[in-house]
Each structure stands twice: as structure tokens, then as C-alpha cells.
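User: Here's a chain of 98 residues. Predict its fold as C-alpha cells.
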Amino acid sequence: MKSKGLNRMKCISVYTKDFEVFSDIYEKVLSTPLEENEEKQVEGVMVSDSGSVPEHYLDRMKTRPEVVVMKVRDKDITILQHRDLFEIFIPETENMVH
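Assistant: Prediction complete.
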């Protein structure tokens, strides 16, 4: 059941504050199958599927001064960095698997 006008995003959390480490494992994180709320280590870094979040969460986080916002141009992916965490947001319309 989908609500009209409410886009949801899949959120993958990567627990590191080091951009170079995040950059090195980014592709591997995207290709790692994760169940909702499942945690795995990717090259020693904890990664978890944080489930589905509404798009307005992303919009609200983008307005915070401590949050760095990155866009992946060739894909509709947004990455937020704040504190010791990177959050990768992927639209749920892509890669829907049931």
C-alpha cells in the first residue's frame, strides 16, 4: 500500500567519521545485501540497514548546519554525513525486492 505523494527512502547507515574510509567502501556497501535493521561489517566498518524513512526526514536533515549533503549525480542517491555517521538514502522505487 503506497501513499500518493509520500516518497520513502531506504536508509543505509555507515558508522565512520572518516570520509576516505567511507569513500573506499561505498560501492561495496551498496552491493552488500542487508535485511531491514540488519548490521554487518564491511572492511571493519559497521553498516546497517536503517529501514525506510519518509522523504521529509531527508529534507529536514539537509537544513541542519552540522550535516554535510552529497548527491550521487548518475543515480538518485543522497548521502548525509553528520557526527560519526554517513547515511545513504536510496529511493525505494528503485531496487524493490520482495
